[in-house]
Design goal:
It is built from 16 helices and two strands. It has a two-stranded antiparallel sheet with strand order 1-2. A hairpin with a 2-residue loop joins strand 1 and strand 2. Helix 5 packs parallel to helix 8 and helix 9 runs parallel beside helix 11.
Length: about 525
């Protein structure tokens, strides 16, 4: 009883201590309820009737949100296609931007009075290439056909279930079905390569070619000549069957453009006053600043040109190829600087620029198949070759204002052969399987087998390109003519062909040339 009495007493004390706070809380709650009821009563009867319905809707939505099954995200395969497509598109944009590099480089290497003409050619040639390659070029190069030429897929039409690859691919572009990206991405990437081949010709024939003749030749090159030889190699044609490998286009792009440029320069003849009394008369470019800028833009674009040819977001392959590409370009620039310094007496800036480009061209065929030391050797040799090549063509009387034939043709041939010398063979790099690259090169212990296949490709593609481009040039020469008049050339193609000046209001070079037309050699052809 004593314990019970004490408990009751403690409970009363506790209740007395808590009662004021409880009272305040209860009063506050009652006040809120009264205010809520008062607010409801102030509503019209219609709004009061809607309140239960609103509560039911909110409850139903909440239940639906909880019960709904979350949407399934993209699969790993879908993510891979998206990443691969993104990388291919970025690489294509970089290669496209190389057109700006060619514009700057060629314009800077040429004289002021021809700047508009050079810029116009480089600008319009990609527009023409886009149409020609879409109409027939892509089909001839990658469409199903025979070992010599593609015969399906004109206008980019026909069966195709890209990005499906391998045995699951069902379409008419089987030659490029290994790339797991949509057909439009494949076309875009190959298009910018085709445009590059046509742009190479522009520099070699600069300052004396008729604008309309150059446009027609560019259409023929991109629409017919380039795709046919490209089919032999990248279209699983007869050269590919014989083990010829060209990863990013030493032969497919650079040599083909170089051979076509060489024949154009030969049939056109040299610029007036270029060769006098068996001496080469210097005709320096008017703006080496923009020529240097063009070189840097091209160097940047090569990081799309070579690594982009993987056509997949493979981090190991992309990074390796980017490094070998850069190292070769750097070695080419250093080698050309040293060679020009020793051979010509001065470290000529134009030779430094062309040396860098020579190194980049030289490694294009082998960048995925070699190690870094080999890339340095390839680039260094290319840098030496380009200096001697420029003077060699001058001795032949073939005038190339920008050195396009030396950079793209000579170093393209060298780079193609270099695959047969330094390719490491399968089993070294993760992306380099038995069926994905060349056999071991000569200096890797593989003998002359791969070198022989590369030599066959150089000779066959060179012979065919020389034959077909000569036919095109001669046909144009016999019909429309390919060279401007003497008066137009002396005045400048900016006025004669376009009726405008690149630097209106600036001091121009004098029209006096110090030579006569009789003194000028018109070339061997």
């Amino acid at each position: 009883m004593m314990l019970k009495s004490m408990y009751k007493q403690k409970s009363k004390t506790k209740n007395r201590r808590l009662s004021p706070r409880n009272y305040a809380v209860n009063s506050q709650s009652n006040s809120k309820v009264k205010l809520f009821n008062l607010a409801i009563k102030r509503l019209s009867p219609s709004w009061q009737a809607c309140l239960p319905l609103a509560c039911l809707i909110v409850l139903a939505w909440g239940y639906a949100a909880v019960a709904q099954t979350p949407a399934a995200g993209p699969t790993t395969a879908e993510l891979k296609v998206a990443l691969d497509t993104l990388w291919v598109a970025i690489a294509a944009f970089l290669v496209f931007f190389m057109n700006a590099g060619f514009c700057m480089l060629e314009t800077g290497f040429c004289r002021q009075k021809n700047a508009v003409n050079v810029l116009s050619k480089n600008l319009i040639v990609f527009a023409l290439s886009s149409i020609a390659f879409w109409l027939i070029g892509f089909a001839l190069m990658f469409g199903d056909g025979n070992d010599f030429i593609g015969l399906s897929g004109f206008f980019l039409g026909g069966a195709d279930n890209s990005p499906t690859t391998g045995d699951n691919y069902k379409g008419i572009f089987g030659a490029i079905s290994w790339a797991g990206v949509p057909l439009a991405a494949k076309f875009l990437f190959q298009l910018v390569f085709a445009g590059t081949a046509a742009t190479i010709v522009s520099g070699a024939v600069a300052e004396r070619i008729k604008f309309v003749s150059f446009l027609i030749f560019s259409l023929l090159l991109v629409g017919i000549l380039y795709p046919i030889t490209g089919h032999w190699i990248w279209g699983t044609g007869w050269l590919a069957d014989r083990g010829f490998w060209d990863f990013a286009g030493c032969t497919v792009v650079h040599s083909v453009g170089g051979w076509a440029a060489l024949m154009g320069a030969a049939f056109l003849g040299p610029r007036l006053g270029r060769y006098q009394d068996r001496q080469v008369v210097a005709m320096p470019g008017h703006n080496m600043s923009i020529a240097t800028l063009g070189c840097l833009i091209l160097w940047l674009g090569w990081f799309g040109f070579n690594p982009g040819s993987v056509m997949a977001a493979d981090p190991s392959a992309i990074s390796h190829i980017a490094v070998t590409t850069n190292m070769s370009g750097a070695a080419g620039g250093i080698a050309a600087t040293i060679t020009a310094w020793l051979y010509l007496g001065k470290p000529d800036l134009s030779m430094i620029i062309n040396g860098i480009l020579a190194g980049l061209v030289g490694v294009t065929a082998s960048c995925a198949y070699i190690g870094i030391p080999a890339s340095l050797l390839i680039g260094f040799i290319a840098g030496v070759l380009v200096v001697f090549s420029v003077t060699f063509f001058d001795k032949l009387g073939i005038d190339d204002p920008v050195g396009a034939t030396s950079v793209h043709l000579v170093c393209g041939i060298w780079g193609t052969l270099a695959v047969g010398l330094w390719a490491v063979g399968p089993g070294v790099y993760s992306w380099y399987g038995d069926a994905l690259g060349p056999a071991k090169g000569l200096f890797a212990g593989g003998g002359f087998g791969q070198f022989g296949a590369q030599l066959l490709g150089v000779i066959s593609v060179g012979g065919f390109t020389v034959l077909l481009s000569s036919i095109f040039w001669l046909a144009l020469k016999a019909t429309l003519g390919i060279r401007v008049s003497k008066e137009e050339e002396l005045e400048g193609l900016d006025i004669g062909e376009h009726g405008m000046e690149a630097y209106s209001g600036f001091v121009k070079e004098g029209d006096a040339t110090g030579f006569s037309g009789e003194q000028s050699s018109m070339g061997k052809f």
